[in-house]
Design a protein that fits this description.
CATH architecture of one domain: Sandwich
Structural class: mainly beta
Organism: Leptolyngbya subtilissima DQ-A4
Radius of gyration: 41 Å
Protein name: Collagen-like protein
Number of strands: 26
CATH topology of one domain: Immunoglobulin-like
Helix content: under 10%
Largest sheet: 7 strands, mixed
Length: 461
Amino acid sequence: MKRALAFALAPLCLGLATTLPLPTLNGCSMLAWAQETRIYGSDGSDGSSGRSGRDGTAGQSQTTVADGTSASFTLAGSDGEDGENGENGYRPSCSGQPRNVNYNLRAPDGGSGGDGGSGGSGGSGGNLTVYYGDRAALQRLSIDARGGRSGRGGRGGNGTVGCRCAVHEWELQTCTGTPGQADYQCRANRYRCYDGSSGTNGSFGRDGTAGADGQLWIVNQLEPLLSETPAIAVGLQTLVDQPVRLSRNLWAEKSGANALLAPGSRVNDVYREYTGRVEGDVSLNWQAPRPLGSFAGGDVRTEIQPDGALTATFPDSLWADYTTSRQADQLTITVTNAVRASDVTRLASGGVQGSGANLKAVVLDLAGESAYLTTQFRLTLKTTDGDPRDDRRLRYVTVYDDVVPAELVSLMGNRFELALGRLPIDRGPLTRGKYAQIEITAVRSLGTNSAEQSISWQGQF
C-alpha cells in the first residue's frame, strides 16, 4: 500500500482566507501546514492469487506387430487444467475519520486483486513402434496419439476502491501569551486528509501450451531390435590399450505418417523409419608428435551419432585434432595433434621494434605450442600527435582495426613478428617518436577447438 508523507512546513505569511479570525504579529497572520500524517481505519486486504492448473499427463507409448489384423491404439495425452481465477481484493474500512485533529490524515487503501493462475500444458501423445513384414498391414492400424489441449489462464481479481475523506481540509488555531499583551501570538495550522489509493487489478494467467502429437516409429522386420550402447566414456590410455564396443540403431526421418495408417488416425505427421545398425569396436590410435603420457589423464567420450558418424569428445584439459575411420566392425579414432588447453593462451607481448616501414610488433609464445596451433591476429592500432608527458588527456586516433594479413605474420621458433609497417595504411602515424596504443587479439585453434587472448602495448615508436 502506498503512503503519503507529510509536507515539510514553516510559518507562512499568506493572507489566506480562513474559517477562524487570525490574530496578527507585525501585521502578518501566522499560518503553517501540519507535518505529521496518520492513517485511520484499515486498508483492504489483497486477494489471493489463483492456483496454476496441473499439466496433462503424457500418453503411454507402446510397441506392436502389424500382422494384417485390425487394431486400435489410444495413446492421447490428457488435457491441462485451467488456472484458477485470482481473488478480488477486500474493501477497506472507511468509517471513523477523526474530526478537528492536529495532524494530517490518510484514508485507507483498497485491496489489490490476486493474479490468475497459469493454465496447465497438455500432455504429449504416446509413441507407437510398429514391426511389420508387409507395409500394407499398417493401413489396418488406427491410432489416436494426439497431444492434450492446453489449460486456460485464470482471470485476475478486481482491485477495490480506496476510501475517500469526508472532510479534506480544516484549520486549528493555537495562541500563546496574554491577550492584549506584546507576547500574545496566534497561528493557524492547516490540515489535510488524503484519499486512499484504489487496489490494482490482478494480471491474467498465461494459457498453457498444447501437447505434441505422438510419433510413429516403423521397423521393416518382425524381430525386435537389439539393445544399443551409442556412447561411452573411458580413460585415454584405456582406449588405446582396450577397444570398447559401441552400437546404435539408425532411423530416417520422413513425412506422411497419417497416410500410412487407417483413416482418421492422428499422429505427428513426421515419422521415423529404421534404416539399419552401426556397431563395432572403437579404439584410439595416438599419432600426435608427443606421446600420450605427456598429457594429463582424463576420459574421452566416444559416440556413434544418429547419422552413424563416430565422434570423440576429449577432456577439457586437452585439445586434440583427430579423424575417424571404419573397416568392417573396427572403428578407429586417430589423433594427429594435441596440446594442453592451459598452454594455448600463454602468449605475451614482446614489445614493438623499429618505425615506419620497418615497424613490427612482437608476440612471444611462452608455452612453445605455436608449431601445433593455427594462430590468427586481429590488431587495433591507435596513435596520437601529442605527448603524454605534457598532456594526460591525449586524443588517440584509430589508424587500423582489422585482421593482420597472414603474409605479414612470421614465426621464428616461439616468436611471432607482425609487420605493422607493411599494413595497407598511411605510414605517417608510424614515424619514430609517435606515441601509440596497440591491442592484439590472438585467435588460436586446433581441430574444433578455439580460444582468444588479448595482448596490450602502449608506448613510443
